[in-house]
Specification:
This protein has 123 residues and is α+β, with helices and mostly antiparallel strands. The chain has a single domain, classed as Lipocalin (Beta Barrel). The protein is built from two helices and eight strands; from the N terminus they run ααββββββββ. An eight-stranded antiparallel β-barrel has the order 1-2-3-4-5-6-7-8. Strand 6 and strand 7 form a beta hairpin. The relative contact order is 0.17.
């Protein structure tokens, strides 16, 4: 009887460990994120150019505009938290989950579930 309880507890523990690891956020490689990215597919931002700098700052230039908007960012596991000023001048933060990131391509999902695809621009 006691062996049955030990085995059950062991299986429950292993299940919890596996579930915890599945939920663990995969950290973004900041070196791959750095640089200039062009949005090639995405609701409302297609054609935008986003630049991530080493110091946690960045710039975004929307299609049809010449003036870049500045932002701050921080990496939090598998997300990039972007802080920028809205039209009223108040700082707002938006989290973007990075679904995939390579040296040449990035796929990000915003808080609304909208997915955007980016290609890295060569400098």
């Amino acid at each position: 009887m006691k062996l049955h309880h030990v085995a059950t507890a062991l299986f429950l523990f292993i299940g919890l460990v596996v579930a915890a690891n599945a939920e663990e956020k995969k950290a973004i490689d900041k070196a791959k994120l750095l640089g200039t990215w062009e949005c090639v597919e995405g609701k409302e931002i297609e054609g935008a150019v986003v630049e991530f700098l080493k110091d946690g700052k960045g710039k975004v230039t929307l299609k049809g505009t010449d003036k870049p908007e500045e932002f701050k960012y921080e990496i939090d596991g598998d997300s990039v938290k972007v802080t920028h000023k809205n039209q009223e001048g108040k700082e707002v933060m938006q989290a973007h989950k990075i679904k995939s990131l390579t040296d040449k391509e990035m796929v990000a999902e915003n808080e609304k579930g909208e997915v955007s695809k980016f290609k890295k621009k060569l400098n």
